[in-house]
């Protein structure tokens, strides 16, 4: 992992590499470079200073290498000395990888040069040393057999791993054989194979290496020990069980690298988008600058013009919020709210395995093994593991990883296989972590009067239960491998995105039966939302809409103190479009008044709510034009300061919450396109 | 700033998803408590320790006090208020804001609706615990309050103090099932005001308090006031049972707490209208809920002490270009990935393309025996799903059929899940939870339904150390079995409600004491501590026997090992690795005189053997410092520097 690496890639740039072979429409060079580029850019992406890359060009027009003086080292150029590689290095290398106009160059000599480079660079230090040779093997090798043996011995001596990847080399394991191969190539393949065999290297055809690229590589992570110490049962002072253990991650969510915020650097701002040679990626070196965050702090102060006073961080004390009260904690007491704990791992009790449900788990799993080289701990832990296994129990434990760390509750499960035993653990919830939402039962229906129904349209019929059962059994994938460890391994990332086709076909008739019995109907999109205008009545069924029409409850005008209910009631009960339009106008005025009367941002949330309700109503009634006209006018008034001063903050809020024009995707009759609706937000 | 909402750097996935995006995801809860004579009537005196001591009113206030304390911890951004009615005195929201034209006789705003402050807690506490009623508010009015006024008062409080909140609720606690004695006009006026609240988006829950010999009859009045919660399921009658002394053997207080607890958290969906594809061509709609949410103490904040009152300083982030410190406008920000030390820019479209795995979905790819889901295949908490008819009519019965089948055949579904557009896909196992009434349920505190249980991808697996098992003996396991058998948890269940989070509780206990200027408690209650006394009482002897047998087994094992070594012709004299032998810090076992690699020879040995990489960073820095070398950089850099030094100097 953190090991240092020195890798030299020898790439064949001979003129014949520019040709296409065996039905490919890609030149041999760009085809085989796929593999090299993938390896190099993976190294670049890792951005490690201790991973060094060197590149040697074979069959180059020029000769540029440390052994150039000697015989047989012609037409080989060091394109890049060993060293860590960044984007700049990658770009300059890209320019150098071009087919030459010669086919002369000895790949064994190139290997010798690569060996020299590695030896000079790594000296005797601890390195992973590697040479990759990519060639079409079409040029004569200048060395005899004795030299091959010598080179192999030297490679072994230096501890270098040699990999030879040939364009269309025969590989019976991979299942490739090139017909009408040149004699030269056949001979070279034999020699190179001999070399790799003699130095325990790898020999293969490039097609295999490229095929392997489609399998995602897993990034190995070193074992992380989260706890090391005793696992106890009972009071350690009085003859308790004490077992020295270590705890490691078993699973841990691998993070997806996040994108960072950057800005175009001002002095480079005009060059964006040119010069980037990498396919599909627009980039030029150094155009972007990182963004740093500067925090400023403000407090309320009515004496300030905007009601806020900026304060310096040095003048602030540490504290916590208790409700809306600020509780100040002095520096000397900064740990006062932290519970004092001592490192430890103690069993609380046991439960039968059947009484644990996996979905109670709160996070990733860990494994608990005996302390290394401690037979006593190993035997004791083993007896604990076997006991859990035999009694089909799990243990509940309290873990404090280090002194002062907060206690955790874990559930421990036994794991035994041929060579290996351990406990697995997952974290459990505390009382506060569980939300007690109530849901009606799924197998019966209670009526309002408390009666229990076992047959109801919400409950499955006997037939439905039957067809579901048959379908589930038909779609069984218990025998499908989940790969070695049982976890999902993604050879193609979306392999599990849909059911297996063969299985799906086999279960087709079951599914058809199920679909027929289930009689599920899609709710047409029109009926979602409040448009359906179902009459809402209280539990008693009293018709309140009718009450509202009686003279003593009738409301002539919308009361600004009760605007939302009254507006909604007009929309729900009125029969005339005019009444709805009139109500909308009244709401508009109420909204404008709220803005004008607002002290600072005091009324803004009410404005948002009223506006949201108004918009909703106008969408339901498909009065897009009316609402859009109102909103355009409101925007103008807000931005011009007509509504009691600077209201720009309100405008930002409206924008943030998506309270914009009604477009013709939402209401067909609207004459505003989604693009125009988006344009509306731009100032 | 609070843990309730997602913390910086946490995945945005944790945010609740709601359709009404213009609303803020906050909850306002207003208690409306009846202060009538009957509510104030104390229960008859009794010698029984378990007998009731609380009147209806005290029980209601105690509940409100408890809920307030809990909400400060669990919902620190949410509001709460207390409105008393049928009081002799009247007081509306804020006296200074009272414009006089709204009048709510016999309604008294005791705690104005807001995020609770320490003073609110203190005032309520002294009222509840010490009966200190300095405002003389707990005096019943001669004339009862008009319920229409109570409801409109609640309407005004919620509309102005909690505008645009995603959830607004009124909890009415009363023992009167017919407040207006069948007066039709007054009942109708109240019903109209109740509809106003409904249309405002406020949901009323009634907590009836039962009187001794009569049952609370909802049909007399309250059924005109209470509407169905639009968030509730179709089949949910959602009646709150009456709280009554003696119900299930509980006191009135406990009975009321139980009823309120079940309603105190507003039910928020984590996702809704989620298509659940059971097979190609068969899709139903479900809603998802976060029934588990890890709560941790809120992070510290900055307090400004120079004003009249301590105040929290609100932080704002300004962005600047890193090197030039030029201010950056929001619109200038672009997203880029770091690659080879440089930024590679991705346009918003390219960004979206990178994350594109399709529309939101739960798509079943097959079913497996439940036993194939291994204990360790855990990666993060599960989401509860429950059917909803909003997208597909018939969803509930199909869901129920699937749920019943999975339970019956002990199977789980395996599904491909995308929580929302552009979210990262996740493989989930679909696991049924049993009915709460099911005696076999290991989780009687959780509702019946299905759970989306995320299972790890290959990238999420870690390797542990390589070890060869040293096996127990049958005798030793038998001894351990006796212990395991003795120490079963109560009812054989793990019940989270028995274990409050000690760190969280302590944090807020101390904060509360500081905020209320009370004495700081000395020792935390920690229910997670093992009950060692009980353990040694029940299994002390067995523990001793186990330890003895373990020693025998160990001795035997070591003997076998020695014999084996002899047979293998190895050096029998080789000392056993010491019990606490540390092989990691290579330097330590080197020499006594001054520790790690102080001598050049020692250092050279470490470098050549490669053991130098086993040294800790602090140790490496020490070694570097001794030789006046630069101590900055990562571990690999430090090692390299030392290696180079050895190369050049020794």
UniProtKB/TrEMBL annotation, chain A:
The keyword Lipoprotein does not apply. Residues 6-213 form the VWFA domain. It is found in: Chromosome, Telomere; Nucleus. GO terms for molecular function: helicase activity. Pfam families: Ku, Ku_N, Ku_PK_bind. Belongs to the ku80 family. It catalyses: ATP + H2O = ADP + phosphate + H(+). Keywords: ATP-binding, Chromosome, DNA damage, DNA recombination, DNA repair, DNA-binding, Helicase, Hydrolase, Nucleotide-binding, Nucleus, Telomere. This is ATP-dependent DNA helicase II subunit 2. It comes from the Eukaryota. Its EC number is 3.6.4.12. Single-stranded DNA-dependent ATP-dependent helicase. Involved in non-homologous end joining (NHEJ) DNA double strand break repair. DNA-binding is sequence-independent but has a high affinity to nicks in double-stranded DNA and to the ends of duplex DNA. Binds to naturally occurring chromosomal ends, and therefore provides chromosomal end protection. Required also for telomere recombination to repair telomeric ends in the absence of telomerase. KU70, of the KU70/KU80 heterodimer, binds to the stem loop of TLC1, the RNA component of telomerase. Involved in telomere maintenance. It is an enzyme of class 3 (hydrolase). PANTHER family: KU AUTOANTIGEN DNA HELICASE (PTHR12604), X-RAY REPAIR CROSS-COMPLEMENTING PROTEIN 5 (PTHR12604:SF4).
TrEMBL record, chain B:
Residues 557-608 are annotated as: Disordered. The keyword DNA repair applies. Coiled coil: none annotated. Its main location: nucleus. InterPro entries: DNA_bd_Ku70/Ku80, Ku70, Ku70_bridge/pillars_dom_sf, KU70_core_dom, Ku_C, Ku_N, SAP_dom, SAP_dom_sf. Residues 612-646 form the SAP domain. It catalyses: ATP + H2O = ADP + phosphate + H(+). Keywords: ATP-binding, Chromosome, DNA damage, DNA recombination, DNA repair, DNA-binding, Helicase, Hydrolase, Nucleotide-binding, Nucleus, Telomere. The keyword Hydrolase applies. It is found in: Chromosome, Telomere; Nucleus. Its EC number is 3.6.4.12. Single-stranded DNA-dependent ATP-dependent helicase. Involved in non-homologous end joining (NHEJ) DNA double strand break repair. DNA-binding is sequence-independent but has a high affinity to nicks in double-stranded DNA and to the ends of duplex DNA. Binds to naturally occurring chromosomal ends, and therefore provides chromosomal end protection. Required also for telomere recombination to repair telomeric ends in the absence of telomerase. KU70, of the KU70/KU80 heterodimer, binds to the stem loop of TLC1, the RNA component of telomerase. Involved in telomere maintenance. Belongs to the ku70 family. PANTHER family: KU AUTOANTIGEN DNA HELICASE, X-RAY REPAIR CROSS-COMPLEMENTING PROTEIN 6. This is ATP-dependent DNA helicase II subunit 1. It comes from Apiospora aurea.
């Amino acid at each position: 992992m953190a090991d240092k690496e020195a890798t030299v890639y020898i790439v064949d740039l001979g003129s014949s590499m520019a040709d296409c072979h065996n039905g490919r429409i890609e030149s041999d060079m760009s085809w085989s470079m796929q593999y090299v580029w993938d390896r190099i850019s993976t190294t670049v992406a890792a951005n490690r200073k201790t991973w060094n890359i060197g590149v040697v060009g074979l069959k180059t027009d020029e000769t540029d290498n440390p052994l150039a003086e000697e015989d047989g080292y012609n037409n080989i150029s060091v394109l890049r000395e060993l060293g860590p590689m960044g984007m700049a290095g990658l770009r300059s290398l890209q320019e150098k990888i071009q087919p030459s106009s010669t086919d002369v160059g000895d790949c064994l000599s190139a290997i010798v040069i690569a060996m020299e480079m590695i030896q000079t660079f790594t000296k005797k230090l601890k390195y992973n040393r590697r040479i990759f040779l990519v060639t079409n093997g079409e040029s004569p090798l200048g060395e005899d057999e004795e030299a091959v043996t010598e080179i192999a011995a030297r490679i072994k001596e230096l501890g270098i791993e040699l990999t030879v990847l040939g364009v269309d080399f025969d590989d019976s394991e991979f299942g490739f054989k090139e017909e009408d191969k040149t004699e030269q190539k056949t001979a070279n393949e034999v020699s190179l194979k001999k070399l790799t065999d003699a130095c325990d290297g790898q020999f293969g055809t490039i097609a295999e290496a490229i095929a392997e690229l489609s399998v995602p590589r897993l990034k190995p992570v070193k074992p992380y020990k989260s706890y090391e110490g005793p696992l106890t049962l009972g009071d350690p002072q009085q003859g308790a069980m004490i077992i020295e253990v270590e705890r490691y991650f078993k699973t841990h969510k691998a993070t997806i690298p996040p994108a960072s915020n950057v800005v175009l650097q001002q002095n480079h701002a005009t060059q964006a988008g040119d010069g980037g040679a990498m396919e599909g990626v627009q980039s030029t070196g150094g155009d972007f600058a990182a963004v740093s965050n500067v925090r400023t702090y403000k407090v309320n102060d009515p004496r300030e013009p905007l009601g806020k006073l900026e304060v310096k961080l040095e003048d602030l004390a540490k504290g916590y919020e208790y409700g809306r009260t600020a509780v100040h904690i002095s520096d000397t007491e900064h740990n006062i709210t932290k519970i004092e704990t001592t490192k430890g791992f103690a069993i609380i009790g046991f439960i039968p395995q059947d009484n644990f449900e996996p979905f109670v788990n709160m996070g990733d799993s860990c494994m608990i093994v005996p302390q290394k080289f401690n037979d006593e701990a190993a035997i004791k832990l083993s007896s604990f593991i076997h006991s859990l296994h035999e009694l089909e129990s799990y243990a509940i434990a309290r873990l404090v990883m280090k002194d002062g760390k907060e206690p955790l509750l874990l559930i421990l499960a036994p794991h035994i296989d041929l060579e290996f035993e351990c406990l697995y653990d997952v974290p459990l919830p505390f009382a506060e972590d569980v939300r007690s939402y109530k849901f009606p039962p799924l197998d019966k229906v209670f009526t309002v009067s408390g009666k229990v129904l076992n047959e109801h349209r919400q409950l499955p019929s006997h037939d439905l239960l039957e067809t579901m059962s048959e379908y589930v059994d038909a779609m069984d994938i218990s025998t499908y491998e989940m790969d070695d460890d049982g976890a999902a391994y993604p050879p193609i990332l979306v392999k599990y995105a849909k059911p297996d086709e063969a299985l799906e076909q086999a279960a087709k008739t079951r599914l058809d039966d199920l679909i027929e019995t289930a009689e599920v109907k899609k709710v047409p999109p029109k009926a979602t939302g409040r448009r359906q205008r179902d009459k809402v009545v209280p539990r008693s069924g009293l018709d309140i809409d009718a009450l509202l029409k009686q003279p003593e409850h009738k409301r002539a005008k919308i009361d600004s103190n009760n605007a939302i209910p009254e507006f909604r009631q007009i929309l729900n009960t009125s029969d005339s479009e005019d009444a709805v339009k009139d109500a909308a106008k009244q709401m508009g005025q109420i909204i404008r008044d709220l803005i004008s009367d607002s002290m600072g941002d005091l009324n803004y949330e009410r404005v948002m709510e009223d506006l949201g309700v108004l918009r909703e109503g106008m969408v339901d009634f498909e009065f897009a034009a009316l609402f859009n006209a109102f909103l355009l006018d409101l925007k103008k008034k807000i931005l011009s300061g007509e509504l009691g001063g600077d209201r720009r903050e309100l405008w930002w809020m409206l924008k943030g919450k998506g309270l914009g024009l009604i477009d013709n995707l939402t209401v067909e009759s609207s004459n505003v396109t989604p693009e125009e609706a988006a344009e509306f937000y731009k100032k | 700033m609070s843990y309730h909402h997602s913390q910086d750097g946490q995945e945005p996935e944790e945010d609740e998803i709601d359709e009404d995006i213009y609303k803020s995801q906050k909850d306002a809860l207003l208690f409306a408590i009846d202060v009538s004579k009957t509510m104030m009537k104390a229960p008859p005196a009794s010698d029984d320790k378990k007998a009731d001591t609380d009147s209806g009113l005290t029980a209601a206030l105690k509940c409100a006090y408890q809920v307030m304390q809990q909400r400060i911890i669990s919902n620190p951004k949410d509001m709460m208020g207390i409105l008393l009615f049928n009081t002799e005195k009247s007081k509306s929201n804020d006296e200074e804001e009272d414009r006089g034209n709204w009048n709510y006789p016999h309604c008294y705003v005791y705690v104005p609706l807001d995020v609770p402050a320490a003073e609110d807690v203190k005032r309520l506490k002294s009222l509840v615990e010490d009966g200190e009623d300095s405002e003389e508010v707990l005096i019943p009015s001669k004339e009862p309050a008009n319920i229409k006024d109570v409801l409109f008062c609640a309407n005004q409080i919620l509309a102005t103090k909690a505008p645009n909140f995603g959830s607004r609720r009124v909890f009415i606690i009363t023992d009167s099932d017919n407040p207006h004695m069948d007066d039709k006009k007054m009942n109708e006026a109240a019903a109209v005001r109740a509809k106003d609240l409904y249309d405002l988006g406020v949901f009323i829950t009634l907590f009836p308090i039962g009187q001794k010999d009569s049952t609370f009859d909802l049909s007399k009045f309250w059924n005109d006031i209470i509407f169905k919660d639009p968030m509730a399921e179709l089949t949910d009658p959602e009646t709150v049972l009456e709280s009554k002394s003696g119900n299930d053997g509980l006191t009135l207080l406990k009975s009321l707490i139980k009823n309120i607890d079940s309603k105190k958290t507003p039910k928020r969906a984590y996702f809704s209208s989620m298509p659940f594809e059971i097979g190609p061509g068969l899709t139903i709609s479900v809603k998802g809920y976060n029934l588990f949410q890890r709560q941790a103490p809120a992070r510290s904040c900055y307090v400004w002490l120079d004003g009249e009152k301590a105040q929290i300083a609100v932080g704002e982030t300004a962005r600047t270009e890193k090197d030039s410190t030029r201010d950056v406008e929001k619109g200038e920000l672009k997203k880029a990935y770091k690659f080879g030390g440089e930024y590679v820019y991705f346009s918003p479209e390219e960004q979206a393309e990178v994350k594109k795995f399709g529309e939101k979905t739960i798509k079943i790819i097959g079913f497996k025996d439940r036993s194939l889901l291994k204990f360790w295949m855990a990666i993060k908490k599960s989401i509860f799903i429950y059917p909803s008819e909003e997208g597909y009519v018939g969803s509930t019965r199909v869901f129920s059929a699937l749920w019943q089948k999975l339970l019956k055949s002990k199977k789980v579904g395996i599904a491909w899940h995308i929580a929302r557009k552009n979210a990262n896909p996740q493989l989930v196992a679909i696991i049924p939870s049993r009915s709460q009434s099911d005696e076999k349920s290991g989780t009687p505190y959780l509702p019946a339904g299905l759970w989306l249980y995320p299972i790890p991808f290959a990238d999420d697996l870690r390797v542990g150390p390589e070890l060869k098992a040293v096996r127990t003996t049958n005798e030793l396991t038998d001894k351990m079995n006796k212990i395991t058998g003795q120490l079963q948890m109560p009812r054989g269940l793990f019940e989270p409600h028995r274990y409050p989070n000690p760190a969280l509780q302590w944090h807020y206990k101390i904060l509360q004491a500081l905020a209320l200027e009370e004495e700081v408690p000395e020792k935390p209650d920690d229910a997670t501590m093992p009950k060692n006394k009980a353990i040694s009482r029940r299994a002390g002897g067995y523990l001793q026997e186990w330890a003895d047998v373990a020693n025998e087994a160990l001795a035997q094992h070591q003997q076998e090992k020695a014999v084996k070594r002899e047979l293998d012709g190895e050096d029998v004299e080789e000392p056993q690795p010491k019990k606490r032998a540390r092989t990691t810090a290579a330097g330590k076992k080197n020499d006594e005189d001054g520790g790690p690699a102080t001598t050049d020879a020692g250092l050279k040995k470490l470098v050549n053997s490669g053991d130098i990489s086993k040294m800790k960073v602090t140790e490496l820095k020490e070694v570097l410092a001794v030789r006046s070398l630069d101590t900055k950089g990562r571990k690999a850099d430090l090692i390299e520097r030392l290696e180079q030094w050895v190369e050049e100097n020794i």
